[in-house]
Amino acid sequence: MYSMDYNKNPFIVIWELTRACQLNCLHCRAEAQKHLHPLELTFEEGKDLIDQIYEMNNPLLVFTGGDPLERPDFFDIAGYAIKKGVRVSMTPSATPNVTKEVMKKAKEIGIARWAFSLDGHNAEIHDHFRGTSGSFDLTMKAIRYLRELDMPLQINTTISKYNYPYLEEMAELVEQLGCVLWSVFFLVPTGRGKQSDMISPAEHEKTFRWLYELSKRAPFDIKTTAAQHYRRVVIQQKMREKISKSNKDEGIFYEDSLTTEDLNKMAGLGRAPKGVNDGNGFVFISHTGDVYPSGLLPLTAGNVRNTPLAEIYRESEIFKNLRNPDKYKGKCGACEFRHVCGGSRSRAYSVTGDYMESEPYCVYIPKALRGTGKLSHQINPISF
User: What is the per-residue pLDDT for 130?
Assistant: First the structure.
């Protein structure tokens, strides 16, 4: 699994079925609209795309939006993918579209898990972030339906300055709801997302360490998105623990002898066999067929209406650059964790305008740059 070649095939494909959505979220990268776009991929084009995805070693396929349930042919598309043998997940918006009957139909065709967004432990915080009054209550109602249908629940939460002070309360709610996975997103200032809504680099680091400690006691799994440097924190924490144990046993632990595969395993990456990043194991297809390294990195590499998905993913210059961490600039290019972390390429682009630049919200200073004076403006290094 750890030898999986992301140069050939992605680990995960996100297909934005539509940008139509009834919500008005503050951070929406799609800047969702109220109506379907006339140039969305048709059902027939969608079937061809699913065939192409399946041929790329059958990666995980996630239907997103907007709200995928806004498309009247959603169940036809999902049903085709599932019959094909594609592993399917979906991220609907908690709107009146989400009824118990719709959930039951999804379960019947084989959509095994639903993911709902909760960005606050109460209505005040969540509804503000989602830009829609009543969104929290609709989400909780939908979650009750899931439990009645005995379907596993995934909660997605975007960390921002609005909910950062209440992470403990959020974790308690996730546990109370009986979630199997808490997917924690870290805001990227693209679309409607604003840099002023983000937490600081130091707060990112603090949250990563808190998540690692939580992961050791929580009854649910934790996954992060747009937080590639969380992998570095996990490795560092595990390394500290291993060094401490080695000292107690009077043994010796050589951190510099670890291979990239060792580091990937130490990062505890869960379902992904190794670190996924924008364009590196990850590909995003827009509602009109444009192909991006991710939905948060708005650089088009081609369109599936004109070029096969495999050709775009394998041959485009953008994707090839993103899959070569040795070409990254600044701190990321010099960092000893670049092949398992690499920083968020989306956030680098959003903040600096260059997708190969350093992750701007990482406080870590690589060993190779310490004491060189090249990063005097940075926060003091966080070492092992």
Answer: 82
Angstrom CA distances, 216 to 63, 209, 224, 268, 360, stand at 30, 11, 15, 11, 28
Round to whole Å and give the CA distance between 373 and 358.
17
Q: Residue 153, SS3?
A: strand
| In contact, 344 and 280? CB cutoff 8 Å | no
16 — alpha (psi -120 to 50), left (phi > 0) or beta? Answer: beta
- Residue 45 makes CB contacts below 8 A (sequence gap 6+) with 289, 304, 305
Note the pTM of the prediction, 2 decimals: 0.89
User: What percent of the chain shows pLDDT beyond 90?
Assistant: 70
pLDDT digits (tens, 9 = 90+) for 220-276: 999 999 999 999 999 999 888 887 665 555 444 445 555 666 666 666 555 566 788
- Contact between 140 and 178 under an 8 Å Cβ cutoff? The reply is no
Can you read off the two tokens belonging to residue 356?
Answer: 């190969």
- How many whole angstroms separate alpha carbon 141 and alpha carbon 177? 12
- Compute the distance between CA of residue 214 and CA of residue 146 in angstroms, rounded to an integer: 25
Q: Residue 362 carries which side chain, given as an amino acid letter? A: C
- Please give the Cα distance from 340 to 347 (Å, whole number): 17
